Amino acid sequence: MASVTKLLRPVARAAKVSRPLRPAFSKPAAPQIRCLSSTAPRREIDISEIPPTPITHLSETEALMADSVSKFAQDAILPKVRDMDEAEAMDPTVVEQLFEQGLMSVEIPEEYGGAGMNFTSAIVAIEELARVDPSVSVMVDVHNTLVNTAILKWGSEALKKKYLPKLATNTVGSFCLSEPVSGSDAFALATKATRTENGYKINGGKMWITNSMEADFFIVFANLDPAKKYKGITAFIMEKGTPGFSIAKKEKKLGIKASSTCVINFDDVEIPKENLLGNEFEGYKYAIGLLNEGRIGIAAQMTGLALGAFENAAGYVWNDRKQFGKLIGEFQGMQHQMAQAWTEIQAARALVFNAARKKEAGEDFVMDAAMAKLYASQVAGRVSSQAVEWMGGMGFVREGLAEKYFRDSKIGAIYEGTSNIQLTTIAKHLQKTYTK
Amino acid sequence: MSGLRILVPIKRVVDYAVKPRVNRAQTAVETASVKHSMNPFDELSIEEAVRLRERKVPVSEIVAFSAGPPKAQDILRTAMAMGADRGIHVQLAEKEELEPLGVAKLLQKVVEKEKSDLVILGKQSIDDDAGQTGQMLAGLLGWSQATQASQVKIEGDSVTVTREVDGGVETLKAKLPMVITTDLRLNEPRYASLPNIMKAKKKPLEKKTLKDFEVDITNRLKTLKVTEPPARKGGVKVEDVDGMIAKLKELGAL
Ligand SMILES: Cc1cc2nc3c(=O)[nH]c(=O)nc-3n(C[C@H](O)[C@H](O)[C@H](O)COP(=O)(O)OP(=O)(O)OC[C@H]3O[C@@H](n4cnc5c(N)ncnc54)[C@H](O)[C@@H]3O)c2cc1C
User: Fold this and answer.
1) Which of A165, A188, A433, B125 has its CA at a distance of 20 to 30 angstroms from the CA of residue B232?
2) What is the pLDDT of residues A124-139, one digit of tens each?
3) Which part of the chain is the Acyl-CoA dehydrogenase/oxidase N-terminal domain (chain A) (predicted)?
């Protein structure tokens, strides 16, 4: 314990906080763990003097957009959710509307045709969309938190000018890291890049790439110098239609069926040197940074999903279904389960919003993001499963959406780092804090 | 003509999707921690004003106005995100309620001050369902009025309003200035897009109080009691058309 206080003392001094700091709520000793945020904090002010507010409070703008997105999702997306799931395809008009609403450019500045909003706004939008359709939500999530952010942060001015207006108005983006040989062990990727006279040549392939059917813009991670191991990884921009680029297969999935997931091949794909993203050999840093914050997006997708599943079932048990002469939601056995589920959803949301706010404040949020994603996906899995049971036969049939939320929930424990990988991240931070 | 100066009065009400509940004391509908939003008919009014401008009718300004509690600011921002140019908020205390005549008198002052030449209001607000404000305002101003519009066309200072009436449509023609109230079929209000929400942040929102207007808004009505409608009794199923006719006869309905 003595060493913990020793570790925390400089932080307490630096932040001028008079309240005693407890390990669970304090920043880990500052410079030791790098804050791998890929976007600059919006608030460069010292937040230690701001009176704390409830974590669920939204700014006026965030609240307004939550409302607007929720309405849009209810009216424009909900009627299509079942059909898109059955067809295992995203309706192109939905994609068009997402662009129209500015949902594909949440953080892109106005000068590039975006909405110019903050990170938490993106999180709010992802959650609201997932309440209605987790497939639409992940499209928006990947496009905003991984693709747009990568260009905003590391794109040259020329790349920004060329691509951000498109990404804001009509071009869907994909993030290509995983490969058949590299999932959890992402940096073991085998796709190779070689220098050419005018740029680079890419060979290899990717697996499980979200949005790849709809996307025209791909951020591809490839190793430019395998001798350097993961430090050879470099990020490139690739357009669909470049010779040698092909989609080999569209996966059939358990859930989020309307979101496309494909295998992609690169066969001598030549790309100009302007399409290098950032610097050579820094791709692995970019990937870590992006996934650290992207994880908060997935966590929000999961809390949105849990809310959607809960609300869907709550509507049924408290209004429609009677057994033994009573609404089934009046039985205490049901009520206690639902109260428990709601509590867990709100606990998960607190983790999600706290992680988002910490990122925005420029604090280290890596462990918070990992906890948020881990817990939110667990809660989503549990609640959506129970929600099916609460609705009985009506929950099991494909007429309603209960069974779909259940199927969709599983992905939360897999992509952008499996639950085990989140646990590993959390444990690493803990061990660092508690090693004497 | 320099372009229309449109005033759109809007009201913050209990959200249309929320089931209203009467409070314990039976004096009003429960409003504490209940979701509120813009009166749906007022969304149509804002949308119509914005569409007039988009249809190249010369519009110099669209002003959204609301008298309501501090939170009414939210719906004014929404109105601005949908396309209104600025907002005026007359702040009322949390429980303070204006009656239609009071609102109409207040609006009359606003119209005079803003030199509005077209006022578009919802035909009713879904909380009180009084459906009087627009008509009273037109009376006070001595302007033409067209209520429950399902279509609005403006050419020069001539306004053509179509309204759905029993058995068909009625077309009214009048000259500006005038008061129009909106009905459901007029348009489909847009969702505020994210970039427009950000733009709305920068649009001016003027804060006022009732004192600034010097109107007599003393309430004239007294609410005696608010009760929920009686629960509907379950119906009966009939076998066929003959069964239905027999049943209707039995009930004295035929
Ligand atoms: C629908 C979908 C969409 C996707 N979208 C994208 C995308 O857009 N871009 C992209 O790059 N990738 C994407 N992915 C890939 C995704 O990120 C990976 O599937 C994920 O990282 C897991 O890798 P894996 O599938 O190879 O599983 P594996 O790594 O093989 O893991 C299998 C199991 O082993 C466990 N495990 C592995 N290593 C360890 C360890 N060290 N300690 C303890 N347990 C361990 C895992 O937790 C898991 O339970 C997507 C995947 C899916 C299914």
Assistant:
1) B125
2) 999 999 999 999 999 9
3) 59-169
**C-alpha span between A149 and A155 (Å, rounded):** 9
Please, how many CA atoms are within 13 Å of residue A328, restricted to the half-sphere of its CB? Answer: 18
User: What CATH class has B4-250?
Assistant: alpha beta
Task: Check CB contact under 8 Å for A68 and B37.
Answer: no
Interface predicted TM-score of the whole assembly (ipTM), two decimals:
0.84
pLDDT band of B234, cuts 50, 70, 90: confident
Q: The whole model's pTM is what?
A: 0.89
Mapped onto helix, strand or coil, the DSSP state of residue B212 is helix
What is the tens place of the pLDDT at every residue in B136-184? 999 999 999 999 999 999 999 999 999 999 999 999 999 999 999 999 9
Q: For residue A182, how far is its CA from the centre of ligand 1 (angstroms)?
A: 8
CB contact residues (below 8 A), chain A span 69-88, against chain B: 69, 71-72, 75-76
The span from the CA of A119 to the CA of A59, in Å, is 12
What is d(CA A263, CA B200) in angstroms, rounded to the nearest whole number?
Answer: 42
Helix (H) or strand (E) holding A334: helix A332-360
Contact A102 B194 (CB under 8 A): yes
CB-nearest to B194 from A60, A75, A106 is A106
Distance CA A416, CA A295 (A): 6
Higher pLDDT, A51 or A22: A51
Q: Is the pLDDT of residue A30 over 90?
A: no
